[in-house]
């Protein structure tokens, strides 16, 4: 171990030791950004950047497990990404499929897909369904939402569509529905229904925008923007995000 690594470990241990575990967020959303830029800066191919980003996921979940986080949402592929050329999209989907299989095989996490399955290729759909089914019986582990083919506006549109169809089957008229529909009714039809909203949203790579990530659920979330590209994200970066979150006074819009 070189001196730099030793100093880093000592500093990470110091930050962790001062962390107030009673103030740890229960649900963390993570925008995994910067894979391609990390690869370019390192002189590697975009595909190697995505692979490095995928391998970082297990590390992140391990850190979350150590700090009592209960739900993690990972934005792995947006609906906008689906418009990429096939020579970019197909390898990326393959990397995501391998990452989801690894999550399911780990045995510690419950995997849940959030996004629009119909927009994805049949093979990707199958991998997501199988991972979710294989981990249904896991109890006590972190619930991992894999956001693949996900867009915040699309989620809200899908929720409203699902709500309308549900009430149409019951024979509810549009007028009756308009009089009774409220925020909770729409929440019950989101991809994350039944889950707590994210307390903290982390975005790597230095970009300071949500880009449509969990638009509905993040109304009262705290945001943490980290300059580090996702493949280079370290435990100390994670702990800093938790420390920053714990230091904030959450007023929930009041």
Number-wise, the strands total 6
Show unreliable segments.
Answer: none
Give the helix tally: 9
Backbone structural class: alpha/beta
Any idea what the CATH superfamily is called? Decaprenyl diphosphate synthase-like
| Integer-rounded radius of gyration | 19 Å
Short description:
By secondary structure, the protein is of the alpha/beta class. The protein is built from nine helices and six strands, in the order H-E-H-H-E-H-E-H-E-H-H-H-E-E-H.
Structural account:
By secondary structure, the chain is α/β, with parallel strands linked by helices. It has a single domain (23-152, 198-246), classed as Decaprenyl diphosphate synthase-like (Undecaprenyl pyrophosphate synthetase, 3-Layer(aba) Sandwich), CATH 3.40.1180.10. It is built from nine helices and six strands. The chain has a six-stranded parallel β-sheet, sandwiched between helices. Strand 3 (110-114), helix 5 and strand 4 form a beta-alpha-beta unit. The mean pLDDT is 92.
Annotate the secondary structure layout:
Elements: H1 3-17, E1 27-31, H2 35-42, H3 46-66, E2 71-78, H4 86-106, E3 110-114, H5 122-134, E4 143-150, H6 152-170, H7 174-180, H8 183-187, E5 200-203, E6 222-225, H9 235-246
Helix pairs in contact: 1-9, 2-3, 3-4, 4-5
Task: Give short descriptive properties of this protein.
6-stranded parallel beta sheet; Undecaprenyl pyrophosphate synthetase; 254 residues; single chain; alpha/beta
């Amino acid at each position: 171990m070189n001196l730099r690594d030793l100093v880093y470990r000592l500093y990470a241990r110091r930050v962790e030791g001062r962390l107030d575990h009673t103030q740890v967020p229960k649900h963390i959303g993570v925008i995994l950004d910067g894979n391609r830029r990390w690869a370019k800066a390192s002189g590697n191919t975009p595909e190697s950047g995505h692979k490095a980003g995928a391998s970082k996921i297990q590390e992140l979940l391990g850190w979350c497990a150590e700090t009592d986080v209960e739900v993690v949402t990972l934005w792995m592929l947006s609906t906008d990404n689906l418009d990429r050329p096939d020579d970019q999209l197909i390898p990326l989907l393959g990397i995501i499929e391998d990452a989801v299989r690894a999550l399911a095989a780990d045995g510690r996490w419950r995997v849940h897909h959030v996004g629009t399955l119909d927009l994805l290729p049949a093979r990707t759909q199958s991998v997501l369904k199988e991972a979710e089914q294989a981990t249904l019986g896991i109890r006590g582990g972190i619930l991992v939402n894999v956001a693949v083919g996900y867009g915040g506006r699309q989620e809200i549109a899908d929720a409203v569509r699902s709500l309308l169809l549900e009430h149409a089957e019951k024979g509810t008229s549009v007028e009756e529905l308009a009089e009774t529909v409220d925020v909770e009714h729409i929440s019950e039809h989101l991809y994350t229904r039944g889950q707590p909203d994210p307390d903290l949203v982390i975005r790597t790579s230095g970009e300071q925008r949500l880009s449509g990530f969990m638009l509905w659920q993040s109304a009262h979330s705290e945001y943490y923007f980290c300059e580090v590209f996702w493949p280079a994200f370290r435990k100390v970066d994670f702990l800093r995000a938790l420390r920053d979150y714990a230091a904030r006074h959450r007023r929930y819009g009041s």
